[in-house]
Design brief:
- The chain has about 280 residues and is of the alpha+beta class.
- Helices cover about 25% and strands about 35% of the residues.
- It contains 7 helices and 15 strands.
- It has helices at about 5-15, 25-35, 60-65, 70-80, 90-95, 125-135, 155-160; strands at about 40-45, 50-60, 80-85, 90, 105, 120, 140-145, 150, 180, 190-195, 200-205, 210-225, 230-240, 250-260, 270.
- The chain has a 5-stranded antiparallel beta sheet. It has a 5-stranded mixed beta sheet with strand order 8-14-13-12-15.
- A hairpin with a 2-residue loop joins strand 10 and strand 11 (about 200-205).
């Protein structure tokens, strides 16, 4: 087996791991607290040389309405330069800390469809965690815990932050977290900055990248049920390309199912298949 094939086997086996979703809220809290000392939070001012993944988001009026700039700058201060050594795990909440403001809360009880009376998320954390997640998928890092938002409150969000539809992450302290494990043999570094009205997220390493990653929606349906509610269902895959050779593999990543809190322009069925 070649080094490339061996790396692909490891990638296929560990890109997403199973987490205990069936735990109730108290169980999740206990699980979080028991694991609290296992996460890395070593920051380094030294920028590692090789970019493995870069994601840029231009700020728009839409994002300014959703986010709080002071909160964004504070989160960047907490996360910029984070080092994840082989075998270590990054926890969004362990590194970012508990939210200390309600200024950017998105409350779904005010939307057209009632969700949970106490269900709300912090807009700034939602945006940044989704960016971190989407960019980490384009590296050799492994997603240990991720939960997508069950609803889609408008048709703009994913386009506004340049991610595929459904590839978001909801983080709700402390029960719903984003956790990323370094299962590779490389040291990774998270670099974040906010300048010239642009958020730039990079995953860097001491070693040159071996692969490139191309995420795409393989199948998507927007439909309406008998209760006249609209849903989006899609399946996302990744093309993994070797930089040294012309070898390429197709990897399943995720399946998303969301209740739409708005009326879509049209129903659709898209299926691109694998080339």
């Amino acid at each position: 087996m070649s080094i490339y094939e061996d790396s692909l086997v490891q990638f296929n086996q560990t890109k997403h791991k199973t987490i205990p979703h069936k735990l109730n809220d108290w169980g999740k809290l206990l699980y979080f607290l028991m694991d609290f000392g296992k996460y890395t939070h070593h920051l380094s001012n030294r920028r590692l040389p090789y970019i493995h993944s870069q994601h840029r988001v231009k700020m728009s009026n839409y994002l300014y309405d959703m986010m709080t700039i002071a909160t964004l700058e504070n989160l960047i201060d907490q996360l910029d330069g984070l080092i994840i050594k082989p075998g270590e795990t990054f926890s969004f909440w362990y590194s970012a800390g508990k939210p200390n403001s309600d200024s950017d809360l998105i409350d779904f009880t005010n939307k057209r469809h009632p969700v949970n009376d106490d269900y709300h998320i912090h807009g700034t954390h939602y945006v940044l965690a989704s960016i971190l997640y989407f960019s980490a998928l384009q590296t050799e890092l492994t997603i240990v815990e991720r939960k997508a938002l069950e609803v889609e409150f408008d048709s703009i969000f994913c386009t506004a932050i340049n991610i595929l539809e459904g590839a978001d992450v909801v983080v709700r302290y402390p029960l719903e977290d984003l956790k990323i494990e370094n299962t590779s043999n490389k040291v990774y570094q998270l670099k974040l900055r906010f300048a010239a009205k642009e958020i730039i997220c990079e995953w860097r390493s001491l070693a040159m990248p071996q692969f490139t990653y191309d995420l795409y929606i393989e199948r998507q349906d927007v439909c309406r049920n008998e209760d006249k509610e609209y849903y989006r269902h899609n399946v996302i895959y990744c093309r993994i390309n070797s930089i040294r050779t012309e070898e390429r593999k197709i990897q399943y990543l995720m399946e998303n199912h969301k209740l739409l809190l708005y009326k879509p322009k049209k129903l659709q069925h898209i299926e691109v298949g694998h080339d």
